[in-house]
Amino acid sequence: MTPITSPASPHLEIAPQQLLYLIYGAKDVYRREAKFSILTALAQLKRGESLCIRIMTDRPQDYAGWPVETITLDEQTLKDWQGDNGYIHRRKACAIAQGLTLADKTLFVDTDTLFLENPLRLFEKIAPGQYVMDRFEYDWSSVCQRPDYVKLGEHLQAHGISPQNSFKLYNSGLCGVTAGDSALLAEAIRLIDEWTQGSFDIHTIEQIAISFAMRDKPVQEAKKFVYHYFAEKNFFHAMQKHFFSLHGEQF
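The chain above was modelled as a monomer; its predicted structure follows.
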């Protein structure tokens, strides 16, 4: 995995805990998603509380003046993180894996996430061998017969997984892990590479791989603390565009 350096923050300290985002490319909607998500996280803090927020990005200048630390991604790193099979969401698993080197506890958050409660309460749920994910979505047994899951099912059979020997699949829009979970993320990335060889039919292979690596471990849902609006993008994009047109993007 390509090491990351940050010209903007060359000496990042190991934080007790960090809220971590990954955002790349020049699309306005994703930059506004990230900034609005950060605002909702900060708005939930009580007086005197602080939150370490870090953004892995190829455009650190977009966050100048914001209370965040940026970790600069170059083009080669993004290419390496996508892997040989061209699966774009592999980058997310790589970002989480790299983030483990920067904090004792990492709460990775997709940019299309709003905080409804204090994010510090979520960190309290993360411990060695105890994870936080956005939400439970379904058991493997409930989807394994779908046509687009057949190829993945063949791979899982090699790991002893069948409809009778199932595991829980979680949405990875939020993923809470600790510094000791490098082997877990390495396993998830290895599975992503295995499951995307040749071709792949499922765009959520990354979160299936993470869920599989976490199987038989205690996982708590974060859905009471956050709202992940992945299915309502159009509304929130329009709202955020209006919000920032009124208030500007400077913090």
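The radius of gyration is 18 Å.
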